[in-house]
Amino acid sequence: MLSKVATAPRALIPLLSLASALSPFGMVVVVPTLSELGRRYGIGSAEAQFLISAYLFGLGAAQPFSGLLCDRLGRRPVLLGGFALFVVASLGCFLVRDIYWLVALRFVQAAGVSVGTVASRAVVRVTHDEQGTASAMAIIAAAMGVAPVIAPVVGGLLSGTAGPQSVFLASAVLGAVVLLTVWIRLPETRQAELTPAVNWKTTRSDYRQLLGSRVFLGYTLMFGFVQGAFFSFLAVGAEVFERDLGMGPQAFGLVWGAMAFAYIIGAGLASRLTRSIGMHRTILIGMFFACIAGGGMLVMALTSGVTLLPLAALLALLTGASGLVIPGSMAGAVSYRPEIAGTSSGLSSAMGLVLSGAFSIAAGVIYTGAFTPIAILVALSAALTALTGWMVRQPASLETRER
């Protein structure tokens, strides 16, 4: 049974969407400035990439702790504290003139903003039933898909007019807006009567149960694998466009921006389909199309080679399929133990991020100019996503009753 907080209005969803979107915005807004920041700090492009790596590592390292604190202290104070840390770190990034401090503060930025996605999932799970959670997650996922489209545009405009450091000031301002909105509008949703006391024994027991749950691991692996499919291409996408299609980074940016809209469409369909046919069937549809896209990309690489229209169509299908799968995978991961939804969300997010990041790293290692190895990696990731459907075939609620 849900508590009285479950009657909270759907008006919370836009706020939670904004809180979740701040994380990808903070990561991607710096991308157009990397070359200029490299020149300003006297480092090469490879070293400038540490500004992205430090952010990703900060997210992965902090999310489990953010989730744990959400369950122990409450979602509202953790959100407020995390976003305050993000604002302070963003201001620090704007002011510092040493690359080592900048990299360190990017880690702190990510650690602070990591609370957004984690706490938002926990709030949604407490205020909705399982199907409603998946539907709400689809809206949040769509917002998270918009952020990486807007962020490079904002970053490029700011860098060209006010210098590359200005993107950090913009992040601080946006973070302050989110912080103020959360402080004014978000009530506490933690169900204190269901939350165990804070001690290492209960924490260890929570993690052991989550890691021992086939359903929790299945949804977490699903989230990581389906993201890994398009991360595999994203890692080398600009180079593929240049080598195989003779097109520059601007063309790649336009095509990849269109992929974000495909993701938004997929997430929107996920919200509608979940209400009509259920979460699990919606996920299966998404898995089917992901496998079609991954297999089609491999067939294209082995037969006709890389051409623009088939590649763009397959990428759009893959990204739209991800939009169908990801909301359900996020909802499923936090539905196994609703009373520790924050802990579940943090652990699942961190594991999924590490897994999808591993596919991105693998793509960079195996790519030597030939597209076929990348197509194999994309197809493998899509196939592994489909295999996780077997792991989650039993609803989380049923597994909970049987334990």
How does this structure look, described?
This protein has 403 residues and is an all-alpha fold. Helices cover 82% and strands 0% of the residues. It has helices at 12-28, 34-41, 45-48, 50-73, 75-95, 99-127, 130-162, 166-185, 200-211, 214-234, 237-245, 249-277, 279-302, 308-335, 341-366, 372-391, 396-402. Helix 1 runs antiparallel to helix 6 (99-127) and helix 7 packs across helix 14 (308-335). The chain starts with 11 loop residues before the first helix and ends with a helix. The model is unreliable at 1-9, 192-197 and 395-403 (pLDDT under 50).
Give the beta-strand count.
Answer: 0
Gross morphology: globular
Helix content: over 70%
Low-confidence stretches: 1-9, 192-197, 395-403
Range of strand content: under 5%
Our Rg estimate from Cα atoms comes to 20 Å
* Distance separating the two termini: 18 Å
Question: Total number of helical segments?
Answer: 17
Order of helical and strand elements: HHHHHHHHHHHHHHHHH
Mean pLDDT: 82
Structural class estimated from helices and strands: mainly alpha
The main pleated sheet reads as: none
The gist of it:
This protein is mainly alpha-helical and 403 residues long.
Question: What order do the helices and strands come in, and which of them pair?
Answer:
Elements: H1 12-28, H2 34-41, H3 45-48, H4 50-73, H5 75-95, H6 99-127, H7 130-162, H8 166-185, H9 200-211, H10 214-234, H11 237-245, H12 249-277, H13 279-302, H14 308-335, H15 341-366, H16 372-391, H17 396-402
